[in-house]
Amino acid sequence: MRPSTPDSSPNDALGLSEIRTVVALYLNRKDCSSCMLVASDWFHDFVPSVWHTIDFDKDFTAFSGLTLHIFAKYGGFISQVANISSIEHLKALQHSAIGSLKSIKVCFRNQGLEFQLLADTIRRSQGALISLDITTPPMHEKPPPAWKNLFNYMYLMDAISSPPPPLEDGTWARCASSLRSIKFDHISITRESFSSFLQRCSSLQELSLSNVQLSSHAASLTLFAGSKLRCLVASLVQVWELDPNDSLAPTLLAHFPLLQKWHITSLTQPSRVSAEMILRDIAKCRSLKDIRFSQGDSKTTSNLISHVLDGLISCTLSIQLLASTTIPGLVSHLNTLTSITITGNNTTETTATIIQDASTTKWLQLIPRLCLHLQLLSFEPVVYDIEVIEARQWTCLNLRELRVRFKDLDTLQQIDRCVKQVRFWRQEASASLTQPWDTDTIPIRVAQYMLKFKRLRIV
Hints:
Distance between the termini: 51 Å
Helix content: 25-40%
Radius of gyration: 27 Å
Number of strands: 16
Strand order of the largest sheet: 1-2-3-4-6-8-10-11-12-13-14-15-16
Shape: flat
């Protein structure tokens, strides 16, 4: 079917290309395909959305059956490829027109040719590539040591450290700065290759590493220590035990002097590094102000918060990591903290024990009273009593987002009534001052208290 050219009214919003382009972002592929047939100008506005993302879990059969002519015509519109898990998936991407990929997500075991095809795909899109996610799942739950490097690690030295042939217009210089987000899982490269890679990725903002080996460090080699990376996702073991055969290899933090945010996925202590050395190395990251703890022990958490980190701005931690020393450590940052999040399941026995602890409860009540600059307070596992809050006023009046639970406000109907009441009072400020309200009910009392926070937007 050939696109038609329908008459469009001057008042028809879809008659504007800019509007159609925005609408296309919210339609599924089938609807976008139908819109392409409406008119020739519609065709050009909706075709990018049809080809934007190729998910090989869903699209492989249809994608692999396309002709070279179709790839040549539309391959340049492909922006994201996800769930690449076989050599057939990689072969389907081998076309010169597919060279503007912004996001690549791969999960397969290296068998030689897969690596070569992946390297070609990465090189072809280096000028546009923003996000790279490569995972090689373990082949065995407990592989023999001799198999570890053979099966569980993909060697990507060539793909991520060797630049493509330089072009006359200096394209490679621009290519080097395109990647912003990288995730590697079960990857192994040399320390020198990794250092060289960081040096070229001047726009890199987020790096996530899990089970990654950076091997063959030599003291005679100069490591790149000028990365502008802002966010790191890695465990303590990943940061301090990069090479199982070299206990003297520099910590991963040596590359990131400007690190601002760190999600510590596990606080398990590295076997070959002392706790004192870890704390000393972290203290050198002067810009680290945003930290998230997932798994581990409360002692390490308390030490980092209380004695290492300076001027903490944002902290996220599991309810299981709360201790009598953790919360006072948070309060010590009262002049800088703007965001505190406590995660966890409030139904577990461990959580119940922690919340019922008198000392912990006391400190949890103190945080919103003492931390004046809080903008986000999320204590979902914790239950607050509105009567206690009314007696001991919160001073964090700049709150923009509040996620807590209140005693006796535990049904959807009560919560909905509370939120609607806050909205109504904000819209009808004058009426709320004159009308008599039943202030004895918990939803109304909570709603009245929420009015103190003029900037509150999310509850």
